[in-house]
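Batch manifest, entry 17 of 40.
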Amino acid sequence: MPELPEVETIARNLSPTLVGKRILSADLRWRRTLVLPSPAVFKKRLIGQRVEGVGRRAKFLCLQLSQDTLLVHLRMSGDLTAMLGGYQPSRHDRLILGLSGDTHLVFNDARKFGRVWLTADPSEILADLGPEPLSDDFTPQGLYTRLHACRRQLKPLLLDQTFLAGLGNIYTDEALHMAKLHPRGLSDAVTPDQAAGLWRAIREVLAEGIRRNGASIDWVYRGGDFQNHFRVYQRTGEPCPVCGTGIERLVVGGRGTHYCPNCQLLLSADSR
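Output type: structure tokens
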């Protein structure tokens, strides 16, 4: 599933092509792709609106239109592409928007998990999301406070989008390794210094992921090369880049997890 850096990269790539274009047609090719409104209302409201901005919130792509906001969540295999010139639909296209300038915005999703919303108030869909990890509002003290407001293992907690928005399996493993925290460690055992280290690690791995246009792994995402710079993710048996110990894999909260057993010690206080 694409995470914050991949979604951010897609938004940045789409923006120059889409902004200023007017929506002329909407071809919904699989009904369940659209969460709301109804297909009839969707087409009636959408056609004629102009794209005024393309951004991201957590793992959602946010297209700001002249009246509404179009939200797209790619889920496991979705991809959103702007096609210039004549376009012929392909097998897994779920939604095709025809725009001015002979442009098509195509949502392709082989596994059919991706979803689309058209809403006048995006907070109705996004209200429960946690803070953006790259925003100025996300601080070391704020993270420490949030960690100690619950008693959960770190890996599942960081994956919880209501706790912190945008992290997935890849960047959580990478950040925990950089911060030298065990994925099974308890959130309320994290010290202020460790919280500050985790805060820095989260921001560093996300910024590096964006700089490298995300990671091209596990799905149909195109163009990123962060997978060539992983510290631990999917590197089972390979040497830790810090100490040389073999990277190990375990399951935490039902998710495959990669870590260094030497750098990321599980102390007794972390598992009490």
